[in-house]
Design brief:
globular, 9 strands, 15 helices, 407 residues, nine-stranded mixed sheet, alpha/beta, 3 domains, Glycerol-3-phosphate (1)-acyltransferase
Length: 407
């Protein structure tokens, strides 16, 4: 799924993989801000095949059932997804499948919030995650070494191109360690699991809803700039700066943030310049090197993207599904565009050149998305270069004071 995400996602950063148990069954318990796209993001983990639990009503028709299962999705029925009999049978079948997967040390992703909404917040979690974990270990007579891993996904924004996405994995919970407690009061243990996952998500999800929304959004931008890696689409190292500290800023910190925001606005630069964030030179080089075939591809792609995204924004009233539909449509458009380009080149030149030109067109087109996104950065970089040294130092000092607070 790397190709369709090329114009939609700029970077994916996986953090805390040391907390991911190896060669053991894992139940990922995550937040759910972006509908279908959340599940797609986890498929980019190297070496991990992840099965995702999703709303059961979309599996009711034979074709969709076949299609979604082929995408490693499994149904979980909520009360509103189907009548009680269908929901009961469907969930029983899913639990049997999950147990078979866990016995083979597979990884299952469940969205513990129960539903999706595109905002930077954490809602109260449903209790299903804990009950599923307990059901699995009871089926094995407490032999299954199942681990729950709280996992948080953060998007730089919703509904826009070139998003930066951060996925963090917190310390795992060994369900087996709760054997005696489960035998005594499994409902209480399920609630303990829910509370631990809730605490983890509230620590690792950027929460801008509530007080200091604008300041927290800007701090999120600073954190993204601090962790920017110019040469990779995916990175797997420790995320610098603390999201937990961002979520709990005081009025004094918010005041410093507002002062810094005003200062960079007055000088006409961005935090990326003050923080000396490097830019994606490789994408710029590829875009320019392949421009003869990639620029026309990008322009066609961009026009298709613009009209299809406008259609979704106008026709789909429920914003929960906007990004998911955009990604799905992006997949379809990317496939059609790649097929058309390949047919044209294979009819004009030799197979070797046709392959190279097709790859250059598509990947170069993705790089043009990144290059165009960088254009404002380049213009403001000229402003930064022309600033007085003492002004640069003042902005850097303001920024460093903020970075120290959230370090």
């Amino acid at each position: 799924m790397r190709l369709p995400l090329g114009g939609f996602v700029r970077k994916i950063h996986f953090d805390g993989l040391e907390n991911f148990p190896k060669d053991k069954p894992v139940l990922l318990a995550g937040n759910h801000p972006n509908s279908f796209l959340d599940g797609v993001i986890y498929q980019h983990m190297s070496g991990r095949k992840i099965y995702t639990l999703t709303r059961g009503d979309v599996f009711l028709k034979p074709f969709s059932n076949y299609l979604f299962r082929g995408m490693n999705l499994r149904p979980i029925f909520r009360a509103r997804d189907a009548n009680s009999e269908v929901a009961r049978k469907g969930n029983n079948q899913t639990m049997d499948e999950l147990y078979d997967l866990f016995k083979n040390n597979k990884t299952i992703l469940i969205f513990s919030e129960g539903s999706s909404y595109p905002e930077k917040s954490v809602r109260r979690l449903k209790k299903g995650t804990g009950h599923i974990a307990i059901d699995m270990i009871k089926r094995s007579d407490y032999q299954l070494d199942l681990h729950i891993v709280p996992t948080a996904v953060n998007y730089s924004s919703f509904g826009s191109l070139m998003q930066t996405i951060h996925v963090s994995f917190d310390k795992s919970i060994s369900v087996k360690d709760y054997k005696e407690a489960i035998k005594e009061d499994e409902k209480k243990v399920a609630e303990q699991f829910t509370n631990r996952i809730q605490e983890s998500l509230e620590k690792n999800v950027v929460i801008t809803k509530g007080d200091f929304t604008e300041e927290k959004e800007f701090l999120h931008e600073i954190i993204i700039n601090e962790n920017y890696r110019p040469f990779t689409f995916k990175s797997y190292d420790t995320w610098r700066l603390s999201i937990a500290k961002l979520n709990s800023i005081s009025e004094a910190t918010a005041s410093k943030v507002r002062q810094y925001m005003k200062s960079i606005s007055d000088f006409g630069v961005d935090d990326a310049h003050v923080g000396e964030r490097s830019f994606d030179a490789v994408s710029v080089f590829i875009a320019l090197f392949t421009f003869g075939v990639s620029l026309p591809t990008y322009l066609i792609w961009r026009v298709l993207w613009y009209f299809s995204m406008s259609l979704i924004d106008k026709k789909v009233k429920n914003i929960v599904f906007h990004d998911s539909l955009k990604v799905g449509l992006s997949m379809f458009l990317s496939l059609i565009l790649a097929i058309v380009i390949a047919i044209l080149f294979f009819n004009w030149v030799s197979p070797l050149w046709a392959t190279l030109l097709t790859l250059g067109s598509i990947y170069g087109g993705i790089c043009w998305f990144r290059l165009v996104e960088l254009m404002p950065y380049f213009w403001k970089q000229l402003t930064w270069f022309g600033m007085k040294k003492e002004d640069k130092n003042e902005l850097s000092q303001q920024r460093n004071r903020i970075v120290d607070i959230i370090s």
